[in-house]
Specification:
single chain; 277 residues; alpha/beta; 9 helices; 17% strand; globular
């Protein structure tokens, strides 16, 4: 589905997830605190047209690109149902199966969103696909002042910074050679105001863990690169989101925004699957 401006679904919150699993890993706790209809939009959510399997999919145990896609799409449907979000996919295949260039369908999708929609964009820490989604999305959103862009710390990538899950994390991130590059790049163009610095409680962590565990095919290879990321305590039990705001005058301090008090939303029936291409 490609929505025309002003006529698309009335989602309150839209999460741009570069791949199947990024939304659950990064903002499942936040989504559990929001109200109103939500969509998880996997930008690299299209079927691959390739004869040879990628190294990543082979490492996950798949025999063909088609098998990997079919399983991942079903995993994502289960996770979205647990998150209470509508599953939306754009037509781009995973990056090993596509050429460089603009991401198909992303600009049209964002242009079709109604005003006041919250759009969550990945920070892009140490992941080129995430950076590409961020840059293309923010370029489109700059021309849609009625939409509300937020940036989320992509996990487990950003969660490797020291002091993650504490009030000191932003300063640590800004000064980190290993993890802070994306944050510094974005800070050069925008003012980033912390909107939600979330520590999940036991109930929230159990709900998030269930959604993350839906992506069974990818858990082992992700752990190879990021260690025991599901451990408790660990990086997934904190989430961080920034609001992009106009720069304040030099003599006017920017007030902090407390974490939201929007309550909890529980998942209902599995949502329909919408292909956007």
């Amino acid at each position: 589905m490609t929505a025309a401006s002003g006529s698309g679904p009335r989602w309150t919150t839209v999460v741009l997830s570069p791949h199947f699993d990024d939304a659950a890993l990064s903002v499942a706790g936040y989504l559990g605190r929001t109200t109103g209809p939500t969509a998880v939009v996997t930008v690299h959510g299209g079927a691959p047209a390739a004869d040879r399997i990628s190294w990543w999919d082979a490492g996950c145990g798949f025999a063909t690109p088609e098998e990997a896609y079919r399983v991942r799409l079903a995993e994502d449907a289960r996770a979205c149902a647990l998150l209470g979000a509508e599953q939306v996919t754009l037509a781009n295949p995973d990056s090993p199966y596509r050429d460089d260039g603009d991401l198909a369908g992303l600009a049209d999708f964002l242009t079709g969103l109604p005003p006041q929609t919250r759009v969550l964009v990945p920070l892009g820490t140490n992941q080129p696909d995430h950076t590409a989604v961020r840059d293309q999305a923010l370029a489109v959103l700059a021309g849609r002042p009625g939409l509300a862009p937020y940036v989320y710390a992509d996990l487990p990538y950003t969660g490797g910074v020291r002091k993650w899950g504490t009030d000191a994390v932003v300063d640590r991130l800004a000064g980190s050679d290993k993890y802070g590059g994306a944050y510094r790049d974005l800070s050069a163009a925008y003012e980033l105001r912390v909107a939600h610095n979330i520590r999940l409680d036991e109930r929230e962590w159990a709900a998030k863990r269930a959604a993350v565990l839906s992506y069974t095919s990818q858990l082992a290879p992700v752990a190879v690169g990021h260690g025991p990321f599901l451990r408790r305590p660990g990086p997934l039990q904190a989430e961080l989101l920034w609001e992009l705001v106009p720069a304040a005058p030099d003599n006017e301090p920017v007030p902090a925004i407390p974490d939201n008090q929007e309550g909890n939303r529980h998942a209902g029936q599995p949502p329909p699957h919408i292909d956007v291409g």
